[in-house]
Design a protein that fits this description.
The chain has 5 helices and 3 strands, in the order H-H-E-H-H-E-E-H. It has about 120 residues and is an alpha+beta fold. The protein has a domain at about 25-95: Winged helix-like DNA-binding domain superfamily/Winged helix DNA-binding domain (Arc Repressor Mutant, subunit A), CATH 1.10.10. The chain has a 3-stranded antiparallel sheet with strand order 1-3-2. Strand 2 (about 65-70) and strand 3 form a beta hairpin. Helix 2 packs across helix 3 (about 40-50) and helix 2 crosses helix 4 (about 55-65). It starts with 7 loop residues before the first helix and ends in a 28-residue tail after the last helix.
Length: about 120
């Protein structure tokens, strides 16, 4: 978009406020999957979340929280997503190793739908 130089401060202010908006639950879920499973395809993200993630991915890409790092060798060569440059800064991390570890969840003894082994 072309504009006159005198409007630079106004445009910078608007862009700054837009980028400071909170992430939606959908975007946070998508970001979590990407960060912990990177590099990851959209199909894997959607398989884990169980819903379409197009909009969340687009918003995360626009904010620089996610980036495309290449293509998978899978059929159709889908795009691979990973944490973007703005991710660490946004969440106050120096390195991805500072992320909390995912803990393994054990299935309760009397889980609903658990196959009988007797």
């Amino acid at each position: 978009m072309a504009h006159q130089k005198e409007y630079d401060p106004v445009i910078a202010h608007v862009q700054s406020n837009l980028s400071k908006k909170k992430l939606s639950t959908s975007a946070l879920e998508t970001l979590s999957v990407i960060v912990y499973r990177q590099p990851v395809t959209k199909a894997v993200i959607e398989s884990i979340r169980g819903v379409n993630s197009d909009y969340a991915l687009q918003k995360l890409l626009e904010k620089g929280l996610v980036k495309i790092i290449g293509r998978s060798e899978d059929v159709g060569r889908p795009l691979l997503y990973a944490a973007g440059d703005a991710f660490l800064e946004h969440f106050g991390l120096n390195d991805l190793n500072e992320l909390p570890k995912l803990r393994e969840f054990e299935e309760p003894e009397e889980a609903i739908g658990k196959p009988d082994t007797e």
